[in-house]
Design goal:
It is built from five helices and six strands. The strands form two sheets. The protein has a four-stranded antiparallel sheet with strand order 5-4-3-6, with no helix packed on it. The protein is flat and about 65 Å long. The chain has one domain. By secondary structure, it is α+β, with helices and mostly antiparallel strands. Strand 1 and strand 2 form a beta hairpin.
């Protein structure tokens, strides 16, 4: 979709990077808890277990999600750097592929993807102010000119399969008469 279609709903990538650096740190686990194993052990008690983990680790929430931007030719990534600014203040970003995932070796030959954000940071802050937000809480946003894609939480990793694929290969042959020809 074009940026004009989504312009009103767009939060700048700097805001996403700011959230990662300034807010999610309050929801990170310090201890070596296998959250996925805990949640799968007794899924009917997840609410109780999560509250207990947050209480034991003195955190107000669990930061298990990751900020990501899905774009053509790159896929899901938040690895970018600012390489310019347009006359109206929109940032020009150069994206790279998600370094936390495996990619085809062909990626090494691919060009970087360059995008222009659909609104300036100031336009975003003005929009927040119109919604009643205290924009003073967002002043650090101007300092985020690059970011790296976050690691995916183990909660979102698929478990090892409990079944194996067959090693036998079968070919189906159909005679012309069987097809009614």
């Amino acid at each position: 979709k074009g940026f004009k279609e989504n312009r009103h709903n767009f939060a700048t990538n700097a805001r996403s990077a700011q959230e990662i650096a300034e807010e999610k740190i309050f929801g990170k686990l310090d201890s070596e808890i296998n959250l996925k194993q805990l949640l799968l052990s007794d899924y009917q008690k997840n609410d109780e277990q999560l509250k207990k983990v947050m209480q034991e680790n003195n955190i107000p929430f669990l930061a298990t999600d990751r900020n990501i931007f899905n774009m053509p030719a790159v896929g899901k990534s938040m690895t970018y750097r600012v390489i310019g600014i347009t006359a109206d203040g929109r940032r020009i970003l150069m994206f790279n592929h998600d370094h936390t995932r495996n990619h085809s070796p062909k990626i090494n030959d691919a060009d970087k993807v360059i995008l222009v954000e659909s609104k300036s940071i100031q336009a975003y802050l003005n929009q927040l102010e119109e919604m009643g937000e205290d924009v003073a809480e967002y002043q650090g946003i101007f300092g985020y000119s690059m970011a790296l894609t976050e690691q995916r939480s183990d909660v979102f990793e698929y478990p090892e399969p409990t079944v194996a694929c067959t090693q036998n290969h079968y070919n189906l042959s159909v005679s012309p008469n069987a097809m009614g020809e």
